[in-house]
Structures are given as structure tokens and as C-alpha cells.
Amino acid sequence: MQIYLPIAEVSVNAFLLLGLGGLVGVLSGMFGVGGGFLMTPLLFFIGIPPAVAVATEANQIVASSFSGVLAHLRRKTVDIKMGGVLLVGGLIGAALGVMLFNYLKSLGQVDLLVKLCYVVFLGIIGGLMFVESLNAIRRAKKSGGAPVPKRRQRTWVHALPFKTRFRTSGLYISVIPPAIVGVAVGVLAAIMGVGGGFIMVPAMIYILGMPTKVVVGTSLLQIIFVTAFTTLLHATTNYTVDMALAVLLLVGGVIGAQIGTRIGVKLKAEQLRILLAAMVLMVCGKLAYDLLVQPAELYSIGVTGGH
């Protein structure tokens, strides 16, 4: 069943969009990522213009993340105080990101920037997560099944001022690192149409030292507000939010997130991380390939740029 998307100006199969929304919703519930890092490139692949894909995908992430957070709140695996600190940074970052996005759009360079950002970030993060997860699984096998509970060493994070206690995460650290992580994620949400979970989840585990079980729900809590704010800014400044596309992705995403949360509880933390890393690397490879191979239509960018 073909449906015409007025803002994107393309016709797409409605069931394909529902399926993509469902798939990304499952990932959202399992890994605590908004799923935009996967969905936005998938939208590029089916012919949605990057500027529309970025703005609309931020909209879809709100719903799938909200659905996932409800499931995590019931399990008490959300650190609301940590989420609040991340959120303040995220809103500042999102505003900066939309300003940069608009500037590059006026230069006609936004499509290239979005795709290059994806290749760089997905490559680095996917690689690091994959190596770390393999090491964690090896350590677990050596210790006879259970990971060795090692005491966290004091790092630069513990030396910073403005310390506060995050009870749900069992941490006593400065609010500066979570705020910086929030700003970085906010900028990426605006430029790449992602919730930023694929950066925030590793940062919360490895930099802040949060337990993996709490990370997923807390990450989703911050993602909801930052992506909602980003969508609002894109809709009012760029007019690139396609509601027909968003609704189809939303429906699939909400259903998928509930399924994903149930699957995520059954898997070990190391298994979750290695699955996420493998997926990130696959999408990165496809995007890099598309950028390097000469397109069939060399001048298609010039058409969308001239109003």
C-alpha cells in the first residue's frame, strides 16, 4: 500500500514504514537507545531526503522512548536525578545543534554533514563497544560464568567539584560529566536525528560508572525530552517534520518498544552490548559504502537545494 509523504515529496509503502518503526522500537526497549542511529540511515536507504529524515525521526524517537521508559519505571530501573542532569545539558546541546543545522542547510551542505557524522560516530562507538563486550564475555567465562565484581577505580570524574549523590545508580560524583554528556547528545540529536543513546549508553557505563540495568531506563528518560525539544525546533525553523511519516513510524515504534523491553530483561548485559555494537558497525559500513560509491544520479542534490 503506497502512501505519499507531502514534506518528503516521495511515495513509500506504508507497511514497510510500520515494520521499520517496529524494528527500531524493539531496539529501543532492549538497549536503551532511541533507535534513530539505525532508523535515520534506513530512511535514507528508502529514499527519504536526509533533512526530512533527521527532523521526523526525532519525533518518532519520543514515542518509542516514552513507551520504553514506562516499562523501566515499573521495574524501578530509572535514575530520575541523573536523568534530570543529563536533560539540562541535552536541551542546551539541542538548541546549539539546530542552530548549526540551519546554518549548514543555508550553505547546502547538510546532507553530506549528516551522513559523515553517522559514519564517524557509528564507526568509533561500534568498534569500542564491540571490543569491550568481547573482553567482558571472556572475563565472565574465565571466572566461571559470573562477571568478576571489581571495585571501581577512582578516575578524573571523581576529582571534579559539585559532587552529588545519585542513589538509584549508587554513585557519588560531580554533576559536570553527566551535563557534558547531555550537551554532546543534544547536539547530535539535532544534527543526526538520533536520541543519542548509542553515545549516551556507553558514556554512562564507562565514564560515569553507572550499572547497566539503570542506564537503559535513564537514557530513555533523557532522550524523550531532548528529542521532543529538537522536533519542535526543527518544525518551527526548518519545516522538515513530515507528520504522515512520523505517525506510521510512531505506531510501529510504540509496539516494538514493549516487546524489546521484555527481550532485554532476559539477556545478559554483555550480550546486549555486543549485539548493539554489531548492529552499529553494520549500519556504519552501509553508509560508508554509499558515500564512497558514485551515485546513479550525480546532480540530485542540486534539485532539492533550489527553492
Structure commentary:
The protein has 307 residues and is mainly alpha-helical. Helix content is 73%, strand content 5%. The protein has one domain (2-142, 155-305). The chain has 12 helices and 4 strands. A two-stranded antiparallel ribbon has the order 1-2. Belongs to the 4-toluene sulfonate uptake permease (TSUP) (TC 2.A.102) family. The chain crosses the membrane at residues 12-35, 82-104, 116-137, 179-207, 214-233, 239-260, 272-289. It is found in: Cell membrane; Membrane. InterPro entries: TM_pro_TauE-like, TSUP/Inactive_protease-like.
- What proportion of the residues is helical, as a percent range? over 70%
The SS-based structural class is mainly alpha
- Biggest beta sheet attributes: 2 strands, antiparallel
Strand order of the largest sheet: 1-2
Distance between the termini: 30 Å
How confident overall, as mean pLDDT? 76
Count of DSSP-assigned helices: 12
Instruction: State the shape.
Output: globular
The helix-strand sequence is EEHHHHHHEEHHHHHH
Bin the strand percentage.
Answer: 5-15%
SS elements, strand count: 4
Q: Which residues sit in consecutive blocks of at least 5 with pLDDT less than 50?
A: 147-151, 301-307
Rg, Å, rounded:
19 Å
How many domain units? 1
